[in-house]
Amino acid sequence: MNKMKNKNVLYEHFFNPQRMGELDSPDGIGIIGNAQCGDILIFYIKVNDKRVEKIRFKCLGCGASKAVASYIAELCEGKSIQEIEQLKMEEIFENLKELPKNRWHCPFQALDALKMAIDDWKSREREGKRKMIDVEPISS
Q: Residue 139: helix, strand or coil by DSSP?
């Protein structure tokens, strides 16, 4: 995080998003959507020795959502699972002061999606497979 101090982090990630895309055979996937603004955010992670070795994301949404996802991915790549799980929103907002108030939901969404990817990885580790969501079939 120190390398990002003293510059407009949000601006940098808005114009030069980092870690966009997918990972082949990810260890965890987290998907979150916001019906209010229409954003859909997906995080993919590769984990090695309980450390997030690689993070990639895909975002269908506003520029702020993409910039924040890029920032969160850069901030968290290389950190241990425990470090990410202990991240506080105050730490994240410290470098996102330029974020308009009507976009303050973006960091919460991004961190939630990343933590969902971690939960997915944990379920695979524990159960040996990806946990699936039960859905009712649509009757015709």
A: coil
User: How far does Cα 52 stand from its chain's mean position?
Assistant: 12
Closest CA to 46 of 37, 57, 62, 35: 57
CA 13/CA 72 separation, integer angstroms: 10
DSSP state of 80: B
Class of residue 6 by CB neighbours under 10 A (exposed 0-12, middle 13-18, buried 19+): exposed
Query: Which pTM value belongs to this model?
Result: 0.80
pLDDT digits (tens, 9 = 90+) for 20-65: 999 999 999 999 987 676 789 999 999 999 999 999 999 988 888 8
What is the rounded CA–CA span in Å between residue 130 and residue 126? 10
